[in-house]
Automatic annotation (TrEMBL):
<dbReference type="GO" id="GO:0005759">
    <property type="term" value="C:mitochondrial matrix"/>
</dbReference>
<dbReference type="GO" id="GO:0005524">
    <property type="term" value="F:ATP binding"/>
</dbReference>
<comment type="similarity">
    <text>Belongs to the class-I aminoacyl-tRNA synthetase family.</text>
</comment>
<keyword id="KW-0547">Nucleotide-binding</keyword>
<protein>
    <submittedName>
        <fullName>Tryptophanyl-tRNA synthetase</fullName>
    </submittedName>
</protein>
<dbReference type="GO" id="GO:0004830">
    <property type="term" value="F:tryptophan-tRNA ligase activity"/>
</dbReference>
<keyword id="KW-0648">Protein biosynthesis</keyword>
<keyword id="KW-0436">Ligase</keyword>
<dbReference type="InterPro" id="IPR002305">
    <property type="entry name" value="aa-tRNA-synth_Ic"/>
</dbReference>
<keyword id="KW-0067">ATP-binding</keyword>
<dbReference type="Pfam" id="PF00579">
    <property type="entry name" value="tRNA-synt_1b"/>
</dbReference>
<keyword id="KW-0030">Aminoacyl-tRNA synthetase</keyword>
<dbReference type="InterPro" id="IPR050203">
    <property type="entry name" value="Trp-tRNA_synthetase"/>
</dbReference>
<dbReference type="GO" id="GO:0070183">
    <property type="term" value="P:mitochondrial tryptophanyl-tRNA aminoacylation"/>
</dbReference>
Length: 135
């Protein structure tokens, strides 16, 4: 999975439904080797799935390989899908609440950020003008 790839199917978004997450993980490219192993160079697809699981669960990839030594790639993808979907559920609810908020909360946060950025840029530009002798 890659956030820099142009294809939206290459990454999991905060707004993705549980169904979308399952589809994307199940469509993740792997290889024809039936054994689960962690080798980012020779098996980048399988290794990526293990890394995703590792980051969420806090378990080293090598330990995950041992846990999955007798399961199929399909079973690994199922576990990754379920783990990611469960992990993202609360985050997605908060995100959705913020996006659908009609109170103007996000606008007020953006306005505060713009004001802070403007104040910082004024200080910086004053220093630049002074350094260049333009004052």
């Amino acid at each position: 999975m890659s956030k820099s790839h142009a294809d939206e199917r290459s990454r999991i978004l905060l707004s993705d439904s549980t169904e979308d997450i399952y589809k994307k993980v199940n469509a993740a490219l792997t290889d024809s080797d039936l054994k689960i192993s962690y080798d980012p160079v020779r098996r980048p697809g399988v290794s990526n799935l293990l890394e995703i699981l590792s980051h969420i669960e806090g378990t080293p990839c090598e330990e995950l390989v041992l846990e999955h030594k007798s399961v199929s790639l399909r079973a690994l993808k199922e576990r990754v899908s379920t783990t990611v979907a469960n992990h993202m559920k609360g985050i997605r609810e908060i995100y959705s609440g913020l996006i659908n908020d009609k109170t103007g909360y996000l606008d007020s946060v953006a306005e505060e950020g713009a004001q802070a950025a403007c104040a910082n840029s004024e200080v910086t530009m004053k220093l630049v003008r002074t350094s260049l002798g333009l004052t």
